[in-house]
Amino acid sequence: MYEGNPMAYIIEKAGGLATTGQISILDYQPTKIHERVPVFLGSRDDVQELMDCYQKS
């Protein structure tokens, strides 16, 4: 998470999306120090399209 949070912050401030597939990376609260989660970063449209496909499967 210590790698994902700074990237997610920059992406979201630039108008993009940063998500785990369920919630924003910035809203995610890890329970372990080295916890791993899926990371989707990119433009709002591209990540939303990916999320639509991800949620259908």
UniProtKB/TrEMBL annotation:
GO cellular component entries: cytosol
Pathway(s) served: Carbohydrate biosynthesis
Q: Which residues form a coiled coil?
A: none
List, alphabetically, the InterPro entries matched: FBPase_C_dom, FBPase_class-1
Quote one Gene Ontology molecular function term. Answer: metal ion binding
Q: Does the keyword Transcription apply?
A: no
Any idea where the Fructose-1-6-bisphosphatase class 1 C-terminal domain is?
1-54
Q: Which GO terms describe its biological process?
A: fructose 1,6-bisphosphate metabolic process; fructose 6-phosphate metabolic process; fructose metabolic process; gluconeogenesis; sucrose biosynthetic process
Please list which residues make up the signal peptide: none
Question: Which Pfam family, any one of them, does this sequence belong to?
Answer: FBPase_C
Entry keywords, A to Z:
Magnesium, Metal-binding
Query: PANTHER family, alphabetically?
Result: FRUCTOSE-1,6-BISPHOSPHATASE-RELATED (PTHR11556), FRUCTOSE-BISPHOSPHATASE (PTHR11556:SF1)
Q: What is this protein called?
A: D-fructose-1,6-bisphosphate 1-phosphohydrolase
Origin organism of this chain? Euroglyphus maynei (Mayne's house dust mite)
Q: Taxonomy-wise, where does this protein's organism fall, top ranks first?
A: Eukaryota, Metazoa, Ecdysozoa, Arthropoda, Chelicerata
